[in-house]
What does this fold into?
Amino acid sequence: MPMSLLLIIQLAVGATILRVLLIILGSILIGWFLAYASIKSPIFENIYIPVISSLESVPVITFFPVVLVIFVTRIGGAMGSELASDFLILTAVAWNIWIAQYQAFKTVPKELQEVAINHELGFFSKMRRLYMPFSIPKIAANLFPSFADGLFYITVSEVFSIGTKTFSVFGIGSIIPALLASGDIYYMWVAMLTLAIWVALFTFFFRYIARFSVAKYGLDTAAPIRRGGKVNIMHTYQAWNTLTGPMKKLSKHFTSPFRALPTKGSFGRKWMALSSSKKYITIGTFLLVFIMLLAKIGLYVVSVPLSYWRYLVSYTPVIIYGMAFDYVRVVIIAFISLVIAIFVGYYLAVHQRAAVTVFPVIQIVSAFPAPVYFPLVFAATFGYMYAVFPMSSEIYVLLLGFISTFYYVFYSFWMGVQTVPSEFWEIMENHELGFFTRMRRIILPATFPYLIAGLSSTIDSAWGGLMIGEYWPDIIKGKTLEVQVGLMKMLDVFTYQGKIGPAAWASLLFAIVVTIFSLFFTKKLMTMAREKYVIEEGVYAA
Amino acid sequence: MSIGVILSAVDISYKFPSGKQVFTDINISTGENEFVSIVGPSGIGKSTILRTLGYLIPPTSGKVFLMGEEVKKPSSRISLIHQSIATFPWMTAIDNVKLALIGKGLSQNEMNDIARNTLETVGLKGAEGLYPKEMSGGMRQRVAIARALAGSPVVLLMDEPFVHLDELTAEGLRQEIYDILFNPLTTLKSVVLVSHNLDEVLELSDRVFVMNGSPAKIVDELIIEMPRPRSSRDSRFSTYLDKIYASLTPTR
Ligand SMILES: Nc1ncnc2c1ncn2[C@@H]1O[C@H](COP(=O)(O)OP(=O)(O)OP(=O)(O)O)[C@@H](O)[C@H]1O
Ligand SMILES: [Mg+2]
It folds into this structure.
């Protein structure tokens, strides 16, 4: 029996990691075709890019309950559960890779495209010899974040309950909670350790791939900037080179959604360039899709009795109230992450020797799914915590949100710091600027676009953390972690109680608010960042 | 010409972490109110030398002294103007210049006055509110020069500062910088210029160091003795030019 349990644990870790990897691989394959389609057809591009960039900034996890029901009721069985789980992972890993592929395809140099045309390469040779290789550095730079993101949800995607029914798929995300619940502490540790080892191995593997692919496939374009590092006060050049050399190059390939969004100007220009027949086709397609959507929603709406609508609408005030609470939590989490990311990031940028060890540790810790070990943190501390602060549930939820999200701000800030040219560092040294002056006048403005991009994905994953933390039945035996008020808790509770209608209604309202927020806040900030804080113009090469 | 020694580098060498030894055992010194130039083939290590003189990268061996005191960290007393123009895109011209005045215990008004005056010196009166992207390359370079001057340096290190300017503006600015150097009211006591433009070097310098070889060394040192204002029609001008060419060409 123990032997077989050990084996099961190994297999389960394998299954979980394989599931995430295969879905990443699948996303990459699909993404190539989508990217190709979008550079060939402006119509497709104008639909595809806004859609994936909004999906990237919307916390898809909050729609999971609704999606689950569709998979479980329409398909059902082991297949339904597996597909539901896969779908959740897909929504966590796909968008940033797809954006990266699109950006890569968009930036294939004209000269190379002309060579391809010149030699009359067909679609597959063009893809294989030009577009795919060219997109590899960007994809590689996004492998690690996708991997970490995909793993994060394993405890909720591999086992979930709707009403009284529990569905699960084979994987370590469903086994660890079971081991914890049954008190098999020894095997639980074995399982955690196994997962940790694999996560560490893959983290290093992805780092290696990222470096290798940048070295092999990266074009050193004669960009009019010098991407320097910083003044090496510490004589740690070697470390600097091995770690940040590739990082610096990598930062060019780092995907931030704000770079993907077509600018207003460019859309306008593209639109003007279209012939009038193409314009009509575009408008026609939009209208057709729109009418079809309306018809579909209309049919659905008509099929729901009016009394049921009244019932749903009656939930609206509590939903809004819960949402307000959650926004406050998200703001707190984002703020704390930002502050820590900036201080740690700056420290590491100035202390390269520390960066060499600290950076991979941060990566491994952040790739290890927090919901897997969080119950242990809870078990070890809750007695003390609740005795001292009666409001400790809030602290735990904020902590989980922070753990699940910190890495993204940190990584973005770090990437931003890499783009600060060595001349700027030298000027800071030369004029003996103090820490706060450096921050306020140079580092923060220079990294602003990166911070905004990071913050938008942070906010996104903070919602995921809240979704898991706000209502966590049996986090440890006989204890439920729950907050008083919160939209995410509401969604969890509705799902748990099998009230799918109200869950869907809450998701819908939330989606509307998130979209408005993204349109009026995030996008505005990104546009501003793009206009004013373009560091690429800071150094005019001699 | 030199009364006291201002900046001196004693046996400095620099080796990149990649292992490339750029230069070894360089000795350079500048006197009070002295204008010194360094010339040498492209890629020889001139920019690297300037950085070590300002301690922006510490020399791998050897020492740098500023008025007899060993330099151990970068300071605004030795100010570098980069070869590639570095201005902060999110700051206006005046804010870029004021950066050099932060932390010096000045009031906002004083900072504004100094910054405005320095911008006027480099011929940017009226451009105070412009952002770098609204300026030409030459204007940006003058902002960078103004920033270096505003910090009241004792030594100014200039790496090809005039290449982005048209000849007329460059000539005016050369004169300005030269006048600032000799103006008893300013703190500036020496200038070290790196330039490919030998006419410019001969027009300005009291002393010229020629770098060559791999790893680079100082292969020649010339004292330029011509009355100012200098003219390229001066017969000594071409004699000096020939001398510099002679030590520049053979790469040993
Ligand atoms: N980070 C680096 N690592 C290794 N070698 C470098 C690095 N930066 C510069 N070098 C090398 O050091 C040498 C000196 O460079 P430097 O920029 O000082 O030359 P320079 O004399 O200023 O050239 P130019 O006249 O073209 O400006 C060059 O051969 C260059 O290839
Ligand atoms: Mg140079």
